[in-house]
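Researcher: I'd like a structural prediction for the single chain below. Treat it as a standalone chain; there are no partners to consider.
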Amino acid sequence: MNILRAAPEHLPGIAAIYDPECLHGFATLMTEPRSPAEWDAWLAEHTDARHAALVAVEKGGPSGEKPLTVLGFAALSPWSTRPGYARTAENSVYVAPPARDRGLGRALMLDLMGRARAAGVCVVIARVTEQNPASVRFHEALGFSTIGVQRRAGEKLGRLIDVRIMDMHLDEP
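Model: Treating it as a single chain, here is the predicted structure.
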């Protein structure tokens, strides 16, 4: 497995991981898959050092002759467009179901956090639906703390969704 900056050739693999969550899961409150043009725009928003997107990839075959397979991805996005929030970013991390429980999400997030710290990001925010307790445990294991719960903030698949807000301060020892 290698961790790389996300590039256009990774977008179909990223979409293959994310789109089913839009339609059937609670890892995102997006309810419709993105179009290819929307994925292109997403990638364009994640090219600078503060707001990077990374992929975990695996080459197929013993000598790597097959195309790369995207096993997971992680990204930092602006928390707000207001300049005063430039020190804060929001994280996203998704791992393909067959690749879970192999440490890929942790590896992606540790790499992403290192890049964030080097780029001057001081606070990373995670928004996690209460229907996704595995993600809550994952973020806690990385050192995120719950700072609040937005009750009934979302709605998806006929359910009202509470959203847990978690943060990690990269500028503290």
